[in-house]
Specification:
Strand content: 5-15%
Shape: globular
Strand order of the largest sheet: 1-2-3
Largest sheet: 3 strands, parallel
Distance between the termini: 22 Å
Radius of gyration: 17 Å
Helix content: 40-55%
Number of strands: 3
Mean pLDDT: 94
Length: 163
Protein backbone atom coordinates (compact mmCIF):
# COMPACT_ATOMS: atom_id res chain seq x y z
CA UNK A 1 0.00 0.00 0.00
CA UNK A 2 2.92 2.31 0.64
CA UNK A 3 4.06 1.90 -2.98
CA UNK A 4 0.57 2.37 -4.38
CA UNK A 5 0.00 5.47 -2.26
CA UNK A 6 3.36 6.96 -3.24
CA UNK A 7 3.06 6.36 -7.00
CA UNK A 8 -0.46 5.23 -7.98
CA UNK A 9 0.20 6.04 -11.63
CA UNK A 10 2.80 3.26 -11.75
CA UNK A 11 0.22 0.57 -11.07
CA UNK A 12 -2.48 -0.71 -13.39
CA UNK A 13 -3.65 -3.17 -10.75
CA UNK A 14 -2.94 -4.11 -7.15
CA UNK A 15 -3.86 -7.20 -5.15
CA UNK A 16 -3.98 -7.26 -1.36
CA UNK A 17 -4.24 -10.52 0.60
CA UNK A 18 -5.48 -10.46 4.20
CA UNK A 19 -4.36 -6.85 4.50
CA UNK A 20 -4.92 -4.27 7.20
CA UNK A 21 -5.14 -0.75 5.71
CA UNK A 22 -4.01 0.81 8.98
CA UNK A 23 -5.06 1.57 12.51
CA UNK A 24 -7.25 4.64 12.89
CA UNK A 25 -7.32 5.17 16.68
CA UNK A 26 -4.30 6.30 18.64
CA UNK A 27 -5.10 4.02 21.59
CA UNK A 28 -5.18 1.00 19.26
CA UNK A 29 -1.87 2.08 17.72
CA UNK A 30 -0.30 2.21 21.19
CA UNK A 31 -1.68 -1.25 22.02
CA UNK A 32 -0.37 -2.64 18.74
CA UNK A 33 3.04 -1.09 19.37
CA UNK A 34 3.25 -2.75 22.78
CA UNK A 35 2.16 -6.09 21.32
CA UNK A 36 4.70 -5.86 18.49
CA UNK A 37 7.47 -5.06 20.99
CA UNK A 38 6.49 -8.11 23.05
CA UNK A 39 6.48 -10.30 19.95
CA UNK A 40 9.85 -8.90 18.89
CA UNK A 41 11.24 -9.94 22.27
CA UNK A 42 9.73 -13.42 21.93
CA UNK A 43 11.21 -13.80 18.44
CA UNK A 44 14.59 -12.93 19.89
CA UNK A 45 14.60 -15.25 22.90
CA UNK A 46 11.99 -18.02 22.86
CA UNK A 47 12.95 -21.50 21.77
CA UNK A 48 11.79 -21.96 18.16
CA UNK A 49 9.08 -24.59 18.82
CA UNK A 50 7.60 -22.48 21.64
CA UNK A 51 7.69 -19.36 19.48
CA UNK A 52 5.88 -21.05 16.60
CA UNK A 53 3.29 -22.54 18.92
CA UNK A 54 2.56 -19.12 20.50
CA UNK A 55 2.59 -17.31 17.14
CA UNK A 56 0.19 -19.77 15.55
CA UNK A 57 -2.12 -19.67 18.59
CA UNK A 58 -3.06 -16.06 17.81
CA UNK A 59 -6.76 -15.63 17.10
CA UNK A 60 -6.14 -14.39 13.55
CA UNK A 61 -4.68 -17.79 12.63
CA UNK A 62 -7.15 -19.96 14.58
CA UNK A 63 -9.20 -21.29 11.66
CA UNK A 64 -6.29 -21.97 9.34
CA UNK A 65 -6.11 -25.42 7.83
CA UNK A 66 -2.45 -25.63 6.87
CA UNK A 67 0.46 -24.19 8.77
CA UNK A 68 3.45 -23.70 6.50
CA UNK A 69 6.56 -25.57 7.64
CA UNK A 70 9.18 -23.28 9.12
CA UNK A 71 12.67 -24.41 10.03
CA UNK A 72 14.62 -22.11 12.32
CA UNK A 73 17.73 -22.49 10.16
CA UNK A 74 15.87 -20.74 7.32
CA UNK A 75 15.51 -17.51 9.30
CA UNK A 76 17.58 -14.83 10.96
CA UNK A 77 15.92 -14.42 14.33
CA UNK A 78 17.33 -10.91 14.84
CA UNK A 79 15.86 -9.78 11.51
CA UNK A 80 12.47 -11.31 12.32
CA UNK A 81 12.49 -9.56 15.68
CA UNK A 82 13.49 -6.27 14.08
CA UNK A 83 10.83 -6.56 11.39
CA UNK A 84 8.11 -6.65 14.02
CA UNK A 85 9.09 -3.23 15.33
CA UNK A 86 10.47 -1.59 12.18
CA UNK A 87 7.40 -2.51 10.11
CA UNK A 88 4.88 -2.45 12.91
CA UNK A 89 1.31 -1.72 11.89
CA UNK A 90 1.43 0.88 14.67
CA UNK A 91 3.87 2.90 12.54
CA UNK A 92 1.88 2.55 9.34
CA UNK A 93 -0.34 5.35 8.16
CA UNK A 94 -4.00 4.76 7.51
CA UNK A 95 -4.38 3.85 3.82
CA UNK A 96 -8.18 3.85 3.66
CA UNK A 97 -8.20 7.00 1.51
CA UNK A 98 -5.62 5.47 -0.82
CA UNK A 99 -7.74 2.33 -1.19
CA UNK A 100 -10.83 4.42 -1.91
CA UNK A 101 -9.02 6.58 -4.49
CA UNK A 102 -7.61 3.52 -6.28
CA UNK A 103 -10.52 1.13 -5.74
CA UNK A 104 -11.06 0.60 -9.47
CA UNK A 105 -7.72 -1.18 -9.77
CA UNK A 106 -7.62 -3.14 -6.50
CA UNK A 107 -8.53 -6.72 -5.69
CA UNK A 108 -8.94 -7.15 -1.92
CA UNK A 109 -8.87 -10.85 -0.97
CA UNK A 110 -9.69 -12.34 2.41
CA UNK A 111 -10.38 -15.82 3.66
CA UNK A 112 -14.05 -16.58 4.30
CA UNK A 113 -13.22 -17.73 7.86
CA UNK A 114 -11.11 -14.65 8.66
CA UNK A 115 -13.79 -12.65 10.47
CA UNK A 116 -11.56 -9.71 11.41
CA UNK A 117 -10.29 -9.15 7.88
CA UNK A 118 -13.68 -9.82 6.29
CA UNK A 119 -15.07 -7.00 8.42
CA UNK A 120 -12.23 -4.73 7.27
CA UNK A 121 -13.10 -5.60 3.65
CA UNK A 122 -16.78 -4.81 4.26
CA UNK A 123 -15.87 -1.48 5.85
CA UNK A 124 -13.66 -0.60 2.87
CA UNK A 125 -16.42 -1.63 0.43
CA UNK A 126 -18.87 0.74 2.16
CA UNK A 127 -16.37 3.55 1.76
CA UNK A 128 -15.51 2.63 -1.84
CA UNK A 129 -18.36 0.66 -3.47
CA UNK A 130 -16.23 0.04 -6.59
CA UNK A 131 -13.65 -1.91 -4.62
CA UNK A 132 -13.42 -5.53 -5.74
CA UNK A 133 -13.56 -7.48 -2.48
CA UNK A 134 -13.66 -11.26 -2.61
CA UNK A 135 -13.40 -14.02 -0.04
CA UNK A 136 -11.66 -17.32 -0.64
CA UNK A 137 -13.61 -20.40 0.41
CA UNK A 138 -12.26 -22.73 3.08
CA UNK A 139 -9.60 -20.17 3.95
CA UNK A 140 -8.71 -18.16 7.01
CA UNK A 141 -5.99 -15.47 7.31
CA UNK A 142 -3.33 -17.48 5.49
CA UNK A 143 -5.43 -17.94 2.40
CA UNK A 144 -2.47 -18.79 0.16
CA UNK A 145 -1.84 -21.85 2.34
CA UNK A 146 -5.46 -22.70 3.16
CA UNK A 147 -6.69 -22.61 -0.44
CA UNK A 148 -3.86 -21.83 -2.86
CA UNK A 149 -5.75 -22.91 -5.99
CA UNK A 150 -8.72 -20.63 -5.48
CA UNK A 151 -6.50 -17.77 -4.32
CA UNK A 152 -4.41 -18.07 -7.48
CA UNK A 153 -7.45 -18.39 -9.72
CA UNK A 154 -9.06 -15.26 -8.30
CA UNK A 155 -5.81 -13.32 -8.78
CA UNK A 156 -5.38 -14.60 -12.35
CA UNK A 157 -8.97 -13.73 -13.24
CA UNK A 158 -8.55 -10.23 -11.86
CA UNK A 159 -5.27 -9.64 -13.68
CA UNK A 160 -6.65 -10.93 -16.98
CA UNK A 161 -8.96 -7.92 -16.98
CA UNK A 162 -5.85 -5.71 -17.12
CA UNK A 163 -4.13 -7.47 -20.03
Amino acid sequence: MHALAARPEMYDAAIFLSTNPGIMREKEKQERWQADQQWAQKFAILPWPDLLREWNAQSVFKDGTLEPPREESSYDRALLSSALTEWSLAKQEDFRDCVAKNSDKILWLTGEKDIKFLSIAMELKKRAPGLNTQSVTKASHRLIFDNPSETAQRMISFLQDWV
